[in-house]
């Protein structure tokens, strides 16, 4: 399809379909990535569907692009379903546009993928600055010979008698065996009083003695876990239990290389290549504070340069490709701890946390202060950025509003940027929020809104036909204040009036189905899907550093300058003792702080995340918002404490507990 076709040229049916797909790709890039394409020819093209995120490697794509001219650069960001190619001349770029739009290629999984190309002014990716391995982490290559590797792999009998105490049935995604002590996955610990018979395998004893003698390790382990991973399988990010094992934890990779992700509680993720026959040694901070895990996928994003073996996988988008995984067997050695852990990280240490329990508000005054520091001030600061991420109404809320009779007076208590205020033009809707800046955004959109406290709404009692409270009541810090917020909604309703209430659910996996919040923690599989980061980390009770993974922001990049950069709740975060949640993971505490990674200060309704820089090391301050996530039945029980209501419906909706109640 010629990019300069004449206006009187009639497109064929196939060309029309291609044009529609091309335009859709253009809109998807703009909406999800902030990538703005242009209608005129340039040297640079965005290649939608031609990315590492949907299993297209550099070796597959580059020869296709080079048929159209001399490629100056091919930029392939990690985990994204697109790439950017820059040609030497505009003419070569135009040839690629005309030749390759709609071209079908086969990805590394053998699936057909169709490329869609659009011009861009230029690629603005920045190369990530040189990172260091997490403190206390080292990778020793070729620590054993290929002969020893073969001997170790052959020594593992996966089919032995199930009566053997070292035998353990396969876990969901891997086979596992324990020696020395059995690791109990239900509590992530070992029974120190019940060692397994036989100790460690004899074949391991001589290897460990050699490593000790050569100074690779400092202590001789007494526990071994052998895991076998098929391609596509992984292990959730975690920290080995402090009270269970001593400082040094080592892992030998056999059979295939793998990329292991290390994540600091401030959000910094460091992908580390572990080659075949290499030894990973974790001590100090890398063992006690950083999570480590393996993302379940069949391909790893790796350095394309042949000289790169172990160590960090950088975000140099000109030197990334895909590497197909093989069957990997890991021998992880630990030394069982016999005394409580007294490490330097007390707020992630299960031994020390027992002595310093998390502190929650014990009075209404303390609750008010917590909400002031971790709710009101935060939203006032992040209002524009928050608004830029809140543009798609939820279907069940739209359904509730559209089912109300024409002319109904409806109050949206905690209206945010007002995204529900204009859903049904047949209603008289008014919104209120504690944040002046969010209310200002509502007014810019020509909605009726005012500032107030959700516990004291200045609207006459019994005057509303309906109320909605979406993602508000979970910000109140005590059960009494949450009930008071519900009572205030009921006060506003006329008899027969209805209220719809949404709160975050503790259960982010319900009826064996993960919520959208958890499902977005995966690699994008093409332009037809939502584009999101590939992160997988467990919730972590962390020392109150200023930045951890982000529930709402699309990217989770590191910044340890919150205290200096004026994060509005930074003055108290070091003292709160509340657990900080890690993005896109299940909740393990009902009362917690959820970080918000602040990105810029956009104008009216502008999206924040521009095309690049990927892996930027200066994303701005991080703010922490207080949440009380509700367990199943908790919202309904709170509503039933009110004397003048009936519950019409109680349901679960994409990680939220929801109630529709009626005033009687």
From TrEMBL:
Reaction it catalyzes: 5-(carboxymethyl)uridine(34) in tRNA + S-adenosyl-L-methionine = 5-(2-methoxy-2-oxoethyl)uridine(34) in tRNA + S-adenosyl-L-homocysteine
One record GO biological process: tRNA wobble uridine modification
UniProt-listed SUPFAM superfamilies: Clavaminate synthase-like (SSF51197), RNA-binding domain, RBD (SSF54928), S-adenosyl-L-methionine-dependent methyltransferases (SSF53335)
GO cellular component: cytosol; nucleoplasm
Recorded superkingdom: Eukaryota
Cofactor(s) needed by this chain: Fe(2+)
Domain Fe2OG dioxygenase: 220-337
Classification via CDD domains: AdoMet_MTases (cd02440), RRM_ALKBH8 (cd12431)
First-listed, main subcellular location of the protein, grouped into a coarse class: cytoplasm
Membrane spanning residue stretches: none
Recorded GO MF terms: 2-oxoglutarate-dependent dioxygenase activity; S-adenosylmethionine-dependent methyltransferase activity; tRNA (5-carboxymethyluridine(34)-5-O)-methyltransferase activity; tRNA binding; zinc ion binding
Keyword Lyase among record annotations: no
Oligomer status and interactors: Interacts with TRMT112.
PANTHER family listed in its UniProt record: ALKYLATED DNA REPAIR PROTEIN ALKB HOMOLOG 8
Family as reported in the entry's similarity comment: Belongs to the alkB family.
Protein name listed in UniProt: tRNA (carboxymethyluridine(34)-5-O)-methyltransferase ALKBH8
Native organism taxonomy: Eukaryota, Metazoa, Chordata, Craniata, Vertebrata
């Amino acid at each position: 399809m010629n990019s300069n076709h004449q206006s009187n040229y009639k497109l064929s049916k196939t060309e029309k379909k291609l044009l529609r797909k091309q335009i859709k790709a253009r809109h998807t890039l703009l909406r999800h990535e902030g990538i703005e394409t242009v209608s005129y020819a340039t040297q640079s093209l965005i290649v939608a569907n031609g990315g590492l995120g949907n299993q297209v490697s550099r070796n597959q794509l580059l020869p296709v692009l080079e048929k159209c001219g001399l490629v100056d650069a091919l930029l392939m960001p990690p985990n994204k379903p697109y790439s950017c190619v820059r040609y030497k001349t505009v003419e070569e770029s135009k040839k690629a546009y005309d030749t390759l739009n709609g071209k079908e290629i086969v990805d590394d999984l053998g699936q057909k993928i169709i490329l869609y190309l659009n011009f861009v002014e230029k690629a603005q990716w920045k190369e990530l600055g040189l990172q260091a391995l997490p403190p206390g982490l080292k990778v020793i290559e070729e620590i054993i010979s290929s002969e020893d590797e073969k001997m170790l792999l052959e020594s593992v009998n996966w089919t032995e008698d199930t009566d053997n105490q070292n035998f353990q049935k396969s876990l969901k995604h891997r086979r596992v065996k324990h020696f020395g002590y059995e690791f109990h996955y239900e509590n992530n610990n070992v029974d120190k009083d019940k060692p397994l018979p036989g100790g460690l395998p004899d074949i391991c004893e001589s290897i460990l003695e050699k490593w000790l003698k050569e100074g690779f390790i400092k202590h001789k382990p007494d526990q071994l876990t052998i895991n076998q991973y098929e391609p596509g399988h992984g292990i959730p990010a975690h920290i080995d239990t402090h009270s269970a094992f001593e400082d040094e934890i080592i892992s030998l990779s056999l059979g295939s290389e793998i990329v292991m992700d290390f994540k600091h509680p401030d959000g910094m993720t460091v992908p580390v290549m572990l080659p075949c026959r290499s030894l990973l040694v974790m001590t100090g901070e890398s063992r006690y504070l950083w999570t480590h895990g393996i993302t379940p996928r069949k391909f790893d994003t790796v350095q394309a340069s042949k000289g790169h073996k172990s160590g960090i996988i950088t975000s140099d988008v000109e030197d990334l490709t895909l590497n197909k995984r093989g069957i990997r067997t890991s021998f992880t050695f630990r030394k069982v701890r016999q005394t409580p852990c007294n490490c330097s990280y007390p707020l992630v240490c299960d031994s020390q946390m027992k002595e310093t329990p998390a502190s929650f508000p014990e009075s209404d005054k303390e609750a008010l202060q917590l909400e002031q520091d971790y709710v009101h001030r935060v939203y006032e600061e992040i209002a524009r950025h928050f608004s830029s991420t809140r543009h798609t109404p939820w279907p069940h809320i739209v359904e509730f509003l559209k089912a109300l009779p024409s002319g109904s007076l409806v109050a949206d208590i905690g209206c945010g940027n007002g995204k529900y205020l204009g859903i049904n033009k047949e209603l008289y809707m008014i919104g209120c929020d504690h944040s002046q800046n969010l209310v200002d955004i509502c007014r810019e959109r020509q909605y009726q809104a005012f500032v107030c406290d959700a516990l004291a709404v200045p609207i006459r009692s019994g005057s509303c036909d309906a109320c909605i409270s979406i993602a508000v009541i979970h910000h109140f810090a005590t059960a009494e204040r949450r009930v008071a917020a519900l009572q205030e909604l009921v006060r506003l309703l006329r008899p027969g009036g209805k209220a719809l209430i949404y709160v975050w659910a503790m259960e982010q996996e319900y009826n064996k189905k993960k919520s959208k919040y958890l499902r977005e923690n995966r690699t994008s599989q093409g332009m037809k899907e939502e584009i999101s980061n590939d992160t997988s980390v467990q919730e972590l009770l962390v020392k109150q550093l200023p930045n951890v993974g982000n529930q709402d922001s699309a990217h989770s990049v590191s910044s340890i300058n919150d205290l200096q950069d004026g994060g509005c709740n930074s003055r108290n975060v070091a003292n709160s003792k509340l657990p900080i949640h890690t993005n896109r993971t299940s909740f393990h505490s009902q009362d917690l702080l959820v970080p918000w990674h602040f990105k810029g200060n956009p104008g009216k309704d502008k999206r924040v995340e521009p095309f690049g820089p990927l892996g930027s090391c200066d994303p701005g301050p991080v703010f922490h918002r207080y949440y009380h996530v509700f367990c199943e039945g908790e919202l309904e029980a709170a509503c039933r404490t009110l004397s003048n209501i009936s519950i019409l419906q109680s349901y679960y909706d994409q990680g939220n507990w929801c109630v529709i109640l009626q005033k009687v």
